[in-house]
Amino acid sequence: MSAVVVEELYKHYGPVRAVDGVSFTVEPGEVFALLGPNGAGKTTAVEILEGHRERDAGQVSVLGFDPADGGRAYRERIGIVLQDAGFEEEFSVAELVRLYAGFFPHPADPDEVIEQVGLKDKHDARVRTLSGGQRRRLDLALGLVGRPELLFLDEPTTGFDPAARHHAWELIDGLRSLGTTILLTTHYMDEAQQLADRVAVLREGRLIAIGTPDTLVGAEHHSVLSFRLPGEAAPADLPALTGEVETHGSVVSVRTTRSARDMHTLTGWALERGFELTSLTLTRPTLEEVYLDLVNGVTT
User: pLDDT tens digits for 15-68?
Assistant: First the structure.
């Protein structure tokens, strides 16, 4: 059974269609990233799944519950890391994590969770003394202490330095290996590409793409094959390639959706003539490039 099932989900605010007929599933143990620009409907959709906002229409099931009426039994099985959570400033890190642990029937050890998120040296520090990045780590600790079956992560590494981001990625990978299902929102495309098993892209409340990161940057998008033209050859001597060929001095670029075929044709041509293709590279589009094309309505 899927951990999350969303079918024809709608949420309108007057004339604004915040979520407009969205459908997707998340499988147990999967890291699923929900992507989109500000105003695309990500937060509204996630809040409906968390049980914090009512839907106008559609079917939603999370861990077998309808979040709208799942009650305490539902909340005990999920963890939520909000983008901007408010804390009681005079609590210490340890006091706050222990407080949250008391809300769950089978919590993790608070001290272990504090160490897990990299706050061991801030164990007894007051929340008001924490930096922005340390507060995000505390957010993560509060989301983890209940041993959730499904963890909602809303922009989990905002404010993190590069080292802290990679530590968080390792932590998320570790949760996945333990079977935790994770629904992630992020504006960092490298984060989505690194962590997500599948990604879904929203634009203006509608789902416009879904698949693995490799699928979304796959054959339907152009790669660029680049090399330096051998001195003995002219552009007119090149073999017939499926892609669009451009030359800039001695450098040739081929924008292609059939990179394997064009690479084979090109290297075969060079071998037959005894040419060396110096500076030969094949560059695939990144998830960020594909994402920008999708949200801007660009056809590749």
Answer: 999 999 999 999 999 999 999 999 999 999 999 999 999 999 999 999 999 999
Give Cβ neighbours of residue 36 (< 8 Å, ≥ 6 apart): 42, 201, 202, 203, 295
- DSSP for 210-272, please give it: EE-HHHHTSTTS-EEEEEEPPTT--GGGSPP-SSEEEEETTEEEEEES-HHHHHHHHHHHHHH
Q: Which of 91, 100, 92, 86 is nearest to 125 (CA)?
A: 92
Burial string for 73-107 (b: 16+ CB within 10 Å, else e) reads: ebbbbbbbbbeeeebeeebebbebbbebbeebeeb
Instruction: Give the whole-angstrom CA distance, residue 157 versus residue 167.
Output: 10
Q: How far apart are CA 234 and CA 200, in angstroms?
A: 45
Non-local CB neighbours of 88 within 8 Å, separated by 6+ positions: 96, 127
Instruction: Supply the Cα-derived Rg of the chain in whole angstroms.
Output: 24
Are residues 209 and 200 in contact, defined by beta-carbon separation less than 8 angstroms? yes
Place of tokens 């001597």: 237
Task: State the Cα angle at 28 between 34 and 176, rounded to 5°.
Answer: 75
Please compute the mean of the pLDDT values over residues 160-186 and round it to a whole number: 90
Backbone φ and ψ for 234, nearest 5 degrees, come out as -115, 160
> In the predicted model, is pLDDT for residue 220 greater than 70?
no
- Measured in whole angstroms, how far is the alpha carbon of residue 44 from the centre of its chain? 17
Q: Is 100 helix (H, G, I), strand (E, B) or coil?
A: helix
Q: Which residue has the higher pLDDT, 296 or 180?
A: 180
Question: How far is 218 from 250, CA to CA, in rounded Å?
Answer: 29
